[in-house]
Amino acid sequence: MQPADMILVSVDDHLVEPPGMFEGRLPARYQELAPRVTRTDDGADVWVFNDTVIPNIGLNAVAGRPREEYGVEPTAFDEMRPGCYDVDERIKDMDAGGVLASMNFPSFPGFSARLFAACQDKDLALAVVRAYNDWHIDAWCGSHPGRFIPMALPVLWDPGLAAEEVRRVARKGCHSMTFTENPYGLGFPSFHDAAWDPLWRALCDEEVVLSIHLGSSGTLAVTSPDAPVDVMITLQPMNICAAAADLFWSRVVREFPIRIALSEGGTGWVPYFMERLDRTYDMHHLWTGQDFGPRLPSEIFREHFLTCFIADPVGIQLRHMIGIDNIAWECDYPHSDSTWPAAPEELATVTGGLDDSDIAKITWENASRWYSFDPFARRPRERCSVAALRGEAAGHDVSVRSFDRGRFERRVGIDIGTLATQATA
What we know:
This protein has helices spanning about 85-95, 115, 120-140, 160-170, 195-205, 230-250, 250-255, 270-290, 295-305, 315, 320, 345-350, 355-370, 385-390, 405-410, 415-425, and strands spanning about 10-15, 35-40, 45-50, 50-55, 75, 100-105, 175-180, 210-215, 260-265, 305-310, 325-330. By secondary structure, it is α/β, with parallel strands linked by helices. The radius of gyration is 21 Å and the shape is globular.
């Protein structure tokens, strides 16, 4: 299949929340306590909530930047492509990149809203979570119907309230809820604790997918404090692997028909992981007490887990070992792993030689089925291809642009040439 003919639904992109998103969405008594954006003396835009300052990290918004300028330093909104935080500009960028629809994970609250969960005033925290979800579903997704798969934040500190929020957002058409890869690490009950049962039940009742993004627990695998950042980046999929093992051997997948997406974790490791599940079960279930009856753990895994990739040639080669119905594509805009706006060309290279039916499953059919999303509800199919969308974006500027080097150097106190050398060494 040629890139122009693909239909692309991305199950993992990100948004940078715009200033003012909470205006008019909180009860009057909480409006002054709402998260807000402020500019620091050194020119960075940061979010402030509950005495916590959260910067916009550079790697979270590098779409359109030259790679030598990637970094983790805080940024300002005027140093980002507007498509990072402006939904109308996002649609233009999606069109130019050939992406029909997108599911967007949060940024400043953390992938699982752990910022809000840490607030001592739980009434305020609940109001902020609900306000965020309403903004995301009604304003961000609702402004361009059919172009986004809505995603809700969880109420991490109270499984009962979390279940209520699942049911509330499901009534608004939301069938994805982001969640932490390790609740125990955040001070909440583990996946093995029955305390979460109200949430699992609500997810199943409402056909809402539990979308677990790597790093959503607030920690990433790293070997030592002085290890190069490359170590952490390389090991990122291991965080998702650990979450998958924790969930699989919990009682959750045995007792609930839950659906779980492992976001941005890649797929190449999955065949070995399933083989390890089967081996562990065969060798040890008689004394550990695990019981799947006559079925193999790998079969159970395929029923419950969606695996997701950006560019994963090994995973594509092993797609039938993973399960062709268990793989979905991600663009990861505007993060540093994304190849926007050339993602269709990269994907075509990775999927070269595959049957069109396999490509369709990976690029849009599986995502649509898992997330109860109809990609053609608002647009006829002939207007949904990469070629058609790019045709609508004719003239939209997608050139790679450098930002204000002098301003950056003044703020972070280093020479950007040195940074580029370090980044490409």
